[in-house]
Amino acid sequence: MIKSDDNLLPPKLAVEIAGIKFKNPVMPASGTFGYGEEYAPYLDLNQLGAVVTKGLSLHPKAGNNTPRTCETVSGMLNAIGLQNVGVDAFIRDKMPFLEQFKTPVIVNFFGNTQDEYGEVAARLDDVPGVAALEMNISCPNVKHGGIVFGTDPKAAFAAVSLVRKRTTKPLIVKLTPNVTDIQITARAAEDAGADVLSLINTLTGMAVDVKTRKPRLANTIGGLSGPAIRPIAVRLVHQVVQAVQIPVIGIGGISRAMDALEFLIVGARAVQVGTANFVDPNAMAVIIAGLEEFCREEGIADINDLIGTLEL
Amino acid sequence: MIKSDDNLLPPKLAVEIAGIKFKNPVMPASGTFGYGEEYAPYLDLNQLGAVVTKGLSLHPKAGNNTPRTCETVSGMLNAIGLQNVGVDAFIRDKMPFLEQFKTPVIVNFFGNTQDEYGEVAARLDDVPGVAALEMNISCPNVKHGGIVFGTDPKAAFAAVSLVRKRTTKPLIVKLTPNVTDIQITARAAEDAGADVLSLINTLTGMAVDVKTRKPRLANTIGGLSGPAIRPIAVRLVHQVVQAVQIPVIGIGGISRAMDALEFLIVGARAVQVGTANFVDPNAMAVIIAGLEEFCREEGIADINDLIGTLEL
Amino acid sequence: MKNIKTIVLSNQEISPGYFRMKILAPDYSKTSQPGQFVMFRVQRSLPPLLRRPFGIFRVGFMPADCDNMPAKEFIEIIYKVVGSGTEIMQRLHQGDPVELLGPLGTGFDCGEPAEEKILVGGGIGLVPLYSLAEKLVETSRVRLLMGGRTRDDIITVTEFERLGVETYVSTEDGSLGEEGLVTQVLERKLDKYPKATVFACGPMPMIEAVQDICLSRGVSLQVSLEALMACGVGACLSCVVKGAGHTEIEPRYLCTCTSGPVFAAEKLDWSKTEVKMVKSGGCK
Amino acid sequence: MKNIKTIVLSNQEISPGYFRMKILAPDYSKTSQPGQFVMFRVQRSLPPLLRRPFGIFRVGFMPADCDNMPAKEFIEIIYKVVGSGTEIMQRLHQGDPVELLGPLGTGFDCGEPAEEKILVGGGIGLVPLYSLAEKLVETSRVRLLMGGRTRDDIITVTEFERLGVETYVSTEDGSLGEEGLVTQVLERKLDKYPKATVFACGPMPMIEAVQDICLSRGVSLQVSLEALMACGVGACLSCVVKGAGHTEIEPRYLCTCTSGPVFAAEKLDWSKTEVKMVKSGGCK
Ligand SMILES: Cc1cc2nc3c(=O)[nH]c(=O)nc-3n(C[C@H](O)[C@H](O)[C@H](O)COP(=O)(O)OP(=O)(O)OC[C@H]3O[C@@H](n4cnc5c(N)ncnc54)[C@H](O)[C@@H]3O)c2cc1C
Ligand SMILES: Cc1cc2nc3c(=O)[nH]c(=O)nc-3n(C[C@H](O)[C@H](O)[C@H](O)COP(=O)(O)OP(=O)(O)OC[C@H]3O[C@@H](n4cnc5c(N)ncnc54)[C@H](O)[C@@H]3O)c2cc1C
Ligand SMILES: Cc1cc2nc3c(=O)[nH]c(=O)nc-3n(C[C@H](O)[C@H](O)[C@H](O)COP(=O)(O)O)c2cc1C
Ligand SMILES: Cc1cc2nc3c(=O)[nH]c(=O)nc-3n(C[C@H](O)[C@H](O)[C@H](O)COP(=O)(O)O)c2cc1C
Ligand code: FES
Ligand code: FES
Questions:
Q1: Could you state, in order of their start, the residue ranges of all structural domains in chain A?
Q2: What is the CATH number of domain B15-305?
Q3: Which chains touch C (3 or more CB pairs under 8 A)?
Q4: What pLDDT score was predicted for residue D272?
Q5: Of B38, B41, B212, the CB nearest to D280
Q6: Which residue has the higher pLDDT, C64 or D208?
Q7: Are B233 and B261 in contact (CB under 8 A)?
Q8: Dihedral sign, CA of A84, A86, A92, A98?
Q9: Most buried by CB count within 10 Å: which residue of A12, A150, B176, D20?
Q10: Are strands B26-28 and B270-273 parallel, antiparallel or unpaired?
Q11: What is the pLDDT of residues B101-130, one digit of tens each?
Q12: pLDDT at C284 over 50
């Protein structure tokens, strides 16, 4: 490891994943940053490693009834229900805004059948501004009793294989943490042709209003995110990094540079910041600055020298 | 539901589970209350619904290297490694103290093989002061590549079946949350003869010291507990209650009466309080008082009328 | 609209359970519109995790600390202590660091000058009506119908009166003003001024009743809604309400944080149980 | 030993990064022994989740507030700001509510009167030695060897001197007292007083060096250790250290919170890398 010096160049934060160059390893997590434009007044999108969009489906999706979110101890539950404008409206109405920036755009998408996944991927394939696709497999497979693709290694393998055939873009598969052995789904996604894995999506959770005796979410069950889940996310990323050869993006409860560093040290090549954007629209800029400062203080010339340096 | 009145009797908090009468539904979670004597100076053990002991094994167990614990955001990781005095020393040295109290004693135990489980259960079977056994199935099965019993429904079924044969005491099986579908392990335990299920044990997690690049626990991975995990625990208890006929005890992140109520409303018949004991040795007394106050305010004459009243 | 790290200037209890907080807020006089809100970060550390939305009561200036400094621009919010976040807020002191994201959302449309303007406020719902009244009194006759459960819920009425707003107070228990619901008073006023424009903010049952009244009389109505918010900027889709013409097949969700919090009544779907998204309060 | 809900009486920075806090603590004069500690709950709400262990610096009395009230018994703790919990602690004010669980653990054994007593303190490790010194000076000659990295780490030396303790200061950078390690001074003192009893508290490398010295000279040593604690009462088994004779096959773990924090050196396993459980500090 080359030691940098205060008098020398600033530490290099750029990382390369699946052939895409990111100016730094920090990007938003899908669903917490809208289509980018919502946060543009507060944060220069050119500062970010990438922009990751809200999850898109073949057709526009209404989402769940309200209440859709609920704060928990150091976390939040959400059951938005994947409300989105649909892939075509996205390409038509949202992409032009994002193309103004020099930042790679990663489009998150999902389907309720294997074919829907394939079709969305295909429609995005020839959109020039799209740097990569992120396939969210935490969705119920309506053709198989609603079992979530990501919790069934076979369904995950089949869906990823199909998507792989329908896109030439780098394919990131986003894993669900709600499984007994994440190494199995990770390998299934890798074997099916994923270029990158990202994790974790939210952990399923629930909260009850003890006065009304009703669940706090209209959907009863939702996804837990935020600082509370970070130790679980770090463990899962650590396990996945050991199970696969392809790069991994770490997600879950990151709100400070210190948090991002935990993921990089266990071997993530980049990180996504979710709930923290709600708490501070400037969170990612602060994290990027914090990574630079940490590298400087620790004499790390290139952040790539830090990735995967966990000492066991 | 019979409405109580401020002028009438105080609300009834007693619950009965598997034939055991508990004066209220609040008891400590195994491993957070030692063998009872540690907290006796701070809390009248006669106030509690039950005492639940540290997990016991056939032979004394040394536990892991240090550091064994680490605070996380609104939670903690532990990898104590099940250090304990062993079942015989427990019966000889610890039971006499616990027998002084009028409170039922639940003995938590574990094994690294099916036979070890059976043997510990058998040794406890004729100990008069022991009201019930709580079988912790979150342990690696050394005979099957170290896969945790509780994550493998077949291994869980076999181990519980064996223990069932070797004890006449009520048998509580404590489930691990680290599974894709907890309803499957819950039913396996029920089918194998469990009288009661308790959940959740800790969620596996990890934290990294970014300066030293080492895991914060000597064991690398540990169990996450505390308020942070409550939404996950409530969801799992809700799912298990719907999957089985036998009573369920709710555990996970309970530190206030409000928290305990969430579990009771989704259908738990009793709750266990873990990490909160460390924060406040009097936590369980405060929770019991809070349950009584809630019942009074809401006009609930008997806490059993509240159990399982979730409105969907 | 931006995020500023700033400080509390003062924080006082103005009625049991209701606090009024002054926060240093440069530029708000130029940028904020009546009916807009801020996402308030209670403290840098947890809890609470998420920011809390509060209407802007008013924007003002304080004399500069010394000659060569600019006057201090501030906003005031008024809040009721209801849960974990507001419990921490009530203990904040002058000088404590907080963060403001704002001004956010779509505010009131002041409409044509010189019409009769009726403001209907229920409890804490009064808050966004003050800045509106400040603007409306410049051109129109303004009446405020203020309702609450008891007299403790009737706040800042004097300040509206100082603006020249005619105020009518009613409480459910009769402890202040007329006994009964504010909607009774509204019916009477509309009998007298059938061409008035109505602006309402308060608890959902009140808003629904006001909407029924205005709809049946063909009176123009704007309502300011509350919804559970995580981001406040349209990114999380937590705060949606159903827009007019919403169906399961062709959903029309509107974000309260961007399309609202103020909506012209005709933009919303008023079929019952639809708009009551925060009926059960937040999560504790 | 019990848990009390109490208040902060004062909280002041005594050296850069070091604070001294007085906490109302009835009965501690009767119950607490030199070397014992408290589990301190920083605030009722999160964070931090767990309590933080602190040695009791001293127990004292303040005049009663008015005639018919008892004198106010208090304890003092001295803490260094190192992480999330102590960062919140430094902002506590007089009157703020806190909780104390204590007095906990096994303290120092004062040994035979009239022997030579040498106290070795490194930085914040000085804390538990003060109450010990108060007791020892009644019967014995007491010397304090106080070490730190820089002069900022040398605290409360005057107070030891007022007790009649001879103090010798050394700093690694020579900014106060002798330049070098406190162990150099210890060697010289033991050359002079080979029959002394040594009491040491400080960072693990210092404690290990002191142990080497005392062992080789056959000098009796008691050490006060730090360990990561969750409960403080022997229930969680987080804080274990390896006892003398510990092997993988026949483990001998001792709880620092109950068998310690003070241990006679011969009770511990000193084979290297064994006792260094908090080398990397806590978790953030
Ligand atoms: C646009 C807008 C303007 C508002 N203006 C005011 C105001 O001027 N004065 C005032 O006192 N209150 C106002 N509210 C309501 C205020 O946001 C809540 O009372 C406050 O967030 C409660 O926070 P808590 O932590 O004390 O309560 P908790 O119940 O602990 O909060 C838990 C969660 O629920 C949310 N929540 C709880 N109650 C409400 C509610 N009624 N509306 C929306 N979210 C809620 C919180 O924001 C938080 O995310 C406004 C709400 C909105 C949406
Ligand atoms: C018996 C005993 C007596 C002590 N007496 C004093 C004293 O008088 N003055 C003083 O300044 N410090 C003392 N310490 C150390 C003190 O407990 C820690 O500095 C403090 O807990 C750090 O808390 P934090 O939240 O600021 O740090 P963080 O690093 O954020 O704490 C995270 C976790 O690690 C633990 N931790 C961190 N550092 C230590 C440490 N050195 N020893 C034990 N646990 C640690 C914390 O308790 C907490 O659980 C003592 C420790 C023990 C075990
Ligand atoms: C409100 C909300 C909406 C989300 N929507 C999506 C989504 O559309 N697609 C997706 O893959 N993940 C979605 N997620 C999950 C996040 O991308 C992320 O994986 C998760 O929140 C954990 O990260 P965090 O703890 O930093 O928030 C959503 C999360 C939240 C809180
Ligand atoms: C320090 C510690 C030790 C534990 N030891 C055991 C154990 O021996 N057996 C067991 O079944 N569970 C053990 N647990 C798990 C708890 O009993 C409980 O299931 C878990 O902590 C979740 O509850 P909580 O969030 O209230 O702490 C332990 C937990 C902690 C924190
Ligand atoms: S609060 Fe996030 S979209 Fe409105
Ligand atoms: S701190 Fe829990 S056993 Fe010592």
A1: 15-305
A2: 3.20.20.70
A3: A, B, D
A4: 66
A5: B212
A6: D208
A7: no
A8: positive
A9: A150
A10: parallel
A11: 999 999 999 999 999 999 999 999 999 999
A12: no
